[in-house]
Amino acid sequence: MQNKTTFRIYVYGICVLGGIAVIYAIANLDSNALSWWTTFLIVSALLITSRLSLSLPHSKSNLSFADTMIFLSFLLFGGELAILLATFEALVSCLYLKYKKVFFSTLAIPFNIFSTALSTFITFMVWKALPSFGVSQDFSHTPALISTLAILALVQFLVLSSFAAVFYTLNNQANFVSVWKDVCFSSSMTHIAGAGLAGVAFKLLRYGDLLTTLVSVLIFGVAYFTYRQMIKNINESINQAEEAEREKANIAHQKAVEAEQHAQQLEVLLEKEEQITHDLRQSKRDLEYAAFHDNLTELPNRAYLVERLNLLMELGIEVSHRYFVLFIDLSRFKNINDSLGHTVGDEVLKIVALRLRRLMRDEDTIARLGGDEFAVILNDLDSMEAAKKSAQKIYEKLSQPYVIGGTKVFSDLHIGIAPFDVEHVKPEDILRDADIAMHHAKQKNVGLEVFDKDIRSYYLERIRMETELRYALEREELTMNYQPLISLTDGELIGFEALLRWHHHEMGFISPAKFIPVSEDSGLIIPITVWILKETCSQLAKWQKIMPEYKDLIISVNISGKHLADMRLVQDVKNALKHSGLPPTCLKLEITESTAMDNAEHTIEVLNKLKELGVQISIDDFGTGYSSLSYLHELPFDTLKIDRSFVMKSGENGENSQLLQTIISLTKNLQKKVIAEGIETEVQLSLLADLGCDYGQGYLFSRPLAPDLMEDLLYQQTTWLPTIKEEELPAQVERISNEESLPVF
Ligand code: C2E
Ligand code: MG
Ligand code: MG
Question: Which amino acid residue places its CA nearest to atom 13 of ligand 1?
Answer without folding.
Answer: 678
